[in-house]
Design a protein that fits this description.
By secondary structure, this protein is mainly beta. Among the domains are: 74 residues, no CATH class; 80 residues, no CATH class; 49 residues, no CATH class. Helix content is 5%, strand content 26%. It is rod-shaped.
Amino acid sequence: MANTLTKLVISGTPLPPGFKGTPQQFFETMLARMKISAPFGIVTFVSGSNKPTSNQGPWLKDGTQWWVWDDDESDYVPLDISASVTAPYFIQEAEPTTDTDTLVWFKTNGTGADLKIENIYVLLANAWVPILLTTGTTAQRPTVRPDFFRYYDTTISALIWWERGAWRTVDGVKGDLKYVSALSRASALTQNPGWEIFGTGESDNEPARGRILVPAMKDSDGGNPIATSAGITPRNAGSMSGAEEITLTAAQLPEADIKAVNPTSELDLSTKTVIQNTADGDTLNTGQTSVDSGGAANATNVDLKIDGDGDPVGIMNPVFAAFLLRKT
């Protein structure tokens, strides 16, 4: 192997005048006065895969990366810190591995001039989760989602999120009630994830089903009452009253004007009056007055006046039935 010429220069100082000695002494004296110099600095380094255990000068690891000795660490450290620092984020279209210390992924879409950032993901619970609003159909809802992950469902045109282990609408809080004008129960529930028909499910209460809501003015035990105007009953929360059909007592009957059609004068209500066909010769009870019905089999064409002591019965307004939902 031929040696490589260098620009090193060997120089020395003169021997002492009158030097006397053996050849070995002469050689050693010459070496002591000689030096090698160069027009530029000389650096030595170690090359290989194994890291030196002490300061051997720069280390060229695997022939590709420089490491230097750090006195504070008493160890070799990379001269280029890229080997000791994790990439802060990924910028790519394909989903990165989850076995990484990098926590952010900029998902790209397109190439060249059409390249754009589609979404930003963070690594949570060993899964890449988008932090920008994600949209899609009901069938495309993500299967991996942390609590409060938002998603706009284009099938039902609603903003929903993952809360307490289920998809729910973002609007409303637990216990809220609202009416939905869907034509089927399935449609009403599909359009409102996280809601149930009031009186079923968590709010199971059959007596409450189908009732019209009125504001409660007191706690369920009657506490904390709120004053109401005269004639308005302050009701306990959760209390129920009223019915679709009721039977009025005599004291509850309102006043009504009733006149006999066939007779020429009003009936005398000071006595008990029975409308009957007197031609049949029926016998009257004591205190009853007979009025000729003109031969009719019954008195359907006769109007009577009834003096009742009760207040007038209110008329129920026409209603439209819609599904009443409660948020779970």
